[in-house]
Design a protein that fits this description.
- By secondary structure, the protein is mainly beta.
- The protein has one domain (79-352): Beta-galactosidase, Chain A, domain 5 (Distorted Sandwich).
- It contains 4 helices and 24 strands.
- The strands form 4 sheets. Strands 5, 6, 7, 8, 9, 10, 11, 17, 21 and 22 form a 10-stranded antiparallel sheet that branches. Strands 12-13-14-15-24-20-19-18 form an 8-stranded antiparallel sheet.
Length: 368
């Protein structure tokens, strides 16, 4: 993303020196978003910013879309479903399901939302992709055991759509078993227009201790994380799938409890290669995070569970002072690429260190 001046929320195109074009989406905060194809390290490209022709506007009118219905936000790329965000209070906390790779292949487990032959039915609180932690000042907002906490959505703050991305922002309350509030969660979820092999989803999560007068303690427990994924059962390492981290660690034995900039779970569903990876941004709390990742299909970024991860040598508890916040920033990639794991580190660098953009001579108004 970059921030040009004087665009007044209008659509635009970048035109290269060779005449090729890239769509630009002007966002509500005045920044602009675009997707570049591969650029080599040190490469410099120049583009001219212009309004799109009417035909180009029509051709890209489908783009990335969000629909709202029955406590669900559905994200589409053109007419293809990317994911749905369910925030109904009949569930303990919101979750994203399905999480689809290109072609509509769901890479997360369907249980307990749907029954699929051959899928596991353990851990019903592992709902596809979700945000939670197992000990916040003694409140278990992770499991669904007796006395567990809840996350209750308060508001859909923003929705944006366009040729490059769709995104929405929400405000939620983390509550104890009596529905007394613990903290405020702000979520910004961004869905980039993908190619034939990958779907990119960015999650910015801010947790703020501003609903109680006292400090909060994020307890040291492996039962939780912040962003968590339960992969489709066919991808489980126990069924032939592969877990990998940035250092080349493989499977639970070499990845569980280890610090890593990313973790990837991949394999095959119906003889089709696919998988899902989670990247931890350098600006995220305690980056690079530690991972609670299991051969049975769980993958969660857990920066608190140090005691379990180090056999008691280190404590990962964190005191969140009243009025203060902690922020987490993750990218999730759902893919159908058999060679994705070999590209993970390069994909991570795209996320952590995107190209630098300089804007000069921006017109006051792009509308002809």
């Amino acid at each position: 993303m970059f921030t040009p001046e004087g665009l007044a929320g209008e659509p635009a195109m970048l035109v290269s020196e060779s005449g090729s074009t890239l769509p630009v989406q002007i966002l509500s905060d005045g920044s602009a978003a675009l997707i570049l194809d591969h650029a080599a390290a040190g490469e410099c490209r120049k583009y001219r910013l212009e309004p799109p022709a009417a035909a180009e506007r029509t051709a890209s009118s489908d783009g990335m879309k969000v629909t709202v219905r029955n406590h669900t936000l559905s994200v589409y790329q053109d007419d293809s479903l990317v994911t749905r965000y369910c925030h109904s209070n009949k569930y303990a906390r919101p979750f994203f399901f399905p999480v689809n790779a290109p072609g509509g292949l769901c890479v997360t487990r369907s249980y307990p939302m749907q029954t699929v032959a051959g899928e596991t039915t353990d851990h019903p609180h592992h709902k596809s992709l979700w945000i939670a932690h197992g000990d916040v000042s003694g409140v278990d907002n992770w499991s669904e055991e007796e006395g567990h906490g809840h996350t209750r959505q308060l508001n859909i703050d923003t929705i944006e759509e366009g040729p490059v991305l769709a995104r929405f922002g929400t405000t939620s309350l983390w509550c104890d078993s009596r529905n007394e509030p613990l903290l405020i969660q702000k979520l910004s979820a961004t869905f980039w227009r993908g190619d034939v092999s990958c779907r990119l989803m960015d999650f910015d999560i801010q947790l703020t201790a501003n609903v109680r007068p006292d400090d909060l303690v994020f307890g040291d427990t492996k039962e939780g994380g912040i962003l968590s994924v339960r992969v489709a059962s066919a991808l489980e390492a126990k069924r032939g799938g592969s877990i990998q981290n940035v250092y080349g660690g493989l499977q639970e034995a070499e990845c569980w409890g280890k610090h890593s900039h990313w973790c990837s779970y991949s394999g095959e569903i119906d003889i089709r290669p696919c998988g899902i990876a989670v990247f931890d941004h350098p600006d995220s709390f305690r980056s690079p995070t530690t991972w609670h990742v299991r051969d049975y299909g769980l993958m969660t970024a857990n920066p608190f569970g140090y005691s379990a991860f180090t056999n008691g040598r280190t404590n990962g508890s964190y005191i969140l002072r009243a009025g203060s916040s902690i922020a987490f920033k993750y990218r999730v990639i759902a893919h159908n690429d058999a060679d994705f794991d070999s590209k993970c580190s390069a994909r991570y660098l795209d996320f952590a260190f995107p190209p630098q953009v300089r804007v000069s001579g921006a017109p006051k108004n792009l509308i002809p």
